[in-house]
Amino acid sequence: MKLESFILTNFKNYSLQRIECSPGLTCFIGRNGMGKTNLLDAIYYLCMGKSYFNMPDSLAVKHEESFFRLEGHFTVDGKKEVVVAKVIPRKKKELERNGAPYRRLSEHVGLLPVVMIAPDDTNLATEGSETRRSFLDNTLSQLNNNYLQQLITYNKVLQQRNALLKQFGENGGYNPALVEAYDRQMTGPATAIHQSRQQFMEPFRQLLQQLYQSISGEAEEVDCRYVSKMDQAPLDELLRDAAEKDRILQRTTVGPHKDDLDFTIRGYPLKRFASQGQLKSFILALKLAQYRKLMEEKRTPPILLLDDIFDKLDNERGRRLLELLIEGDFGQAFITDTDEQRLEAVIRQFGQQYLKYQVENGTAAKLNRHE
Questions:
Q1: What is the CATH number of the domain that holds 87?
Q2: Which of 108, 169, 258, 353 can bridge 24 by disulfide, Cβ–Cβ 3.0-4.6 Å?
Q3: Is the pTM above the cut of 0.90?
Q4: Is residue 350 predicted with pLDDT exceeding 70?
Q5: Are residues 238 and 256 in the same domain?
Q6: 308 and 242 within one domain
Q7: Residue 23: what are its φ and ψ, rounded to 5°?
Q8: 271: domain range?
Q9: Exposure pattern of 177-205 as b/e (b: 16+ CB <10 Å)?
């Protein structure tokens, strides 16, 4: 799979921009705030049907414009694939593949596997469980569209159950039979989600640990464990036990939407006991493990988006990460950086095809091409 070119129209700070892509390395150089990250987010959007940064589509429309449009030209298994995203705020988003609109956006996920690594990814360790579940769901949804469909079904029923509990709380009544009707609808999808997460995590943990050692060059043990109450009991039993608590709090307090990933270093919580260097190494290892799992199961290297990551690493960790990228058959990569000399050093070590762009105020100018 390769991205050959993409076009941005009224996307964030770009009016109209076409980017030709190298089959190896495409680099975007420029000062902060010029729009380098927006180019990576456009690629991510074409692959996943949404922004990497979980922002509303309305905020991605260029100031004083009424829409944005993204167009990507890909080659997948030797066939041309044209993906177009059209967004007009307050109207239904349109996503097309080769001129045909998707009936559901979720049908697109997994066709064009992608992994993005950005400076703010440390929030995977430092923020709440929702960010870690999102990482897990993002990975599994790209691997298996059935997982995504089960997740959509579960979340829809969960939303309905929560709305019912809130309604009971506001009106002062309670009908357990109505609540149990939603419980029955949630059990099947919840079981499928839980089993998929369990099966995924064991080999993923081992890969994460190997990659952490390679990036950090240190011997401390790190771990990533899947935490779910469904390890102890099926969902129907958990819901029965939590029925009174749910009624009082007016929300569903058990289920896959409460699962978490437990990150540790030397057996202690990562976010409290890791140094900044160890934290960065762990998050990089986590994302590269995601990449390796996608590559292994999709049988093609995903697109790799690296946003200003070398600026956040010391020289030794940067060197080790670069070695991993060069040795790991990482396929097509897109890198942003503020430092042209540092990027030139990256390019020399990759020793492959590359394209380089200078980005300034929402315009990307091609600097040169090397074959």
A1: 3.40.50.300
A2: 353
A3: yes
A4: no
A5: yes
A6: no
A7: -70, -15
A8: 128-295
A9: eebeebbebbbebbbbbbebbeebbeebb
